[in-house]
UniProtKB/TrEMBL annotation:
Residues 160-210 are annotated as: Disordered. It comes from the Bacteria. Residues 1-20 form the signal peptide. The keyword Transport applies. Residues 43-153 form the Organic solvent tolerance-like N-terminal domain. HAMAP family: LPS_assembly_LptA (MF_01914). This is Lipopolysaccharide export system protein LptA. The keyword Transport applies. Component of the lipopolysaccharide transport and assembly complex. Its main location: periplasm. InterPro entries: LPS_export_LptA (IPR052037), LptA (IPR014340), OstA-like_N (IPR005653). It comes from Piscinibacterium candidicorallinum. Residues 184-210 have a biased composition (Low complexity). It is found in: Periplasm.
Length: 210
């Protein structure tokens, strides 16, 4: 299974934003055991070396937590982990991790969440939302788009818009707090232009190896 499912960019995006993100997940997470659980059970495919977990699936590794309805998961001989998690009908898959050394969380949701431990990336696909919050859940920054890719090694993330659909105009949207702010972001919403641009201020999202 290719955890980084490739989607034709021509069909997916109307705009692309690349933002610098000088943040990391809790470094201690990388040395923690991965715990998997579900309500319906799991199936191991020894030939493909893939585990398929279904029914209220939860993956926990240190401060990092992923939750959804169905997870395809594998680990290579070097210990790198890969997966593709989808939510239930009308219920997105969810992702959460704590920032290293700061009392903040990164919280994401999407129709599908993919992770690649070796590339150190996490991808939110379909109705993607990524937020930086305080420990009390107060939102500091928020990014919305059709697809959000966070690269922990390069400390960057990219957001892509999508085709207009019911309830969505397909635009990328961001609400960002002033740099250094610790309170909730102002509700003023900004939208990206059709060409790539740099974001003003704000600290973006994150994720290392789940």
């Amino acid at each position: 299974m290719n955890a980084l499912h490739r989607i034709a960019l021509g069909c997916l995006f109307t705009t692309l934003v690349a933002l610098h993100a000088p943040t990391h997940a809790e470094r201690a997470d990388r040395n923690q055991r991965t715990e998997l659980s579900s309500t319906k059970g799991a199936v191991w495919d020894d030939l493909k070396q893939v585990q398929v977990w279904t029914g209220d699936v939860e993956l926990i590794r240190g401060s990092t937590r992923l939750a959804g309805e169905r997870l395809e998961f594998r680990q290579d001989p070097d210990g790198y982990q890969y997966g593709s998690l989808v939510g239930a009908a009308g219920k997105p898959a969810n992702y959460r991790t704590k920032r290293d050394g700061l009392p903040e969380l990164f919280v994401g949701q999407a129709d599908r969440i993919e992770f690649d431990g070796k590339a150190d990336t996490i991808i939110l696909v379909g109705n993607a939302v990524l937020r930086r919050t305080g420990m009390d859940g107060g939102v500091l920054d928020e990014i919305r788009g059709a697809r959000i890719v966070y690269n922990n090694q390069l400390e960057t993330y990219a957001v892509e818009g999508g085709q207009p659909s019911a309830g969505s105009d397909g635009r990328v949207r961001a609400t960002l707090s002033p740099r250094g702010a610790t309170g909730p972001a102002t509700q003023r919403q900004t939208t990206t232009p059709s060409a790539p641009t740099s974001a003003p201020g704000g600290t973006p999202p994150e994720k290392g190896r789940p």
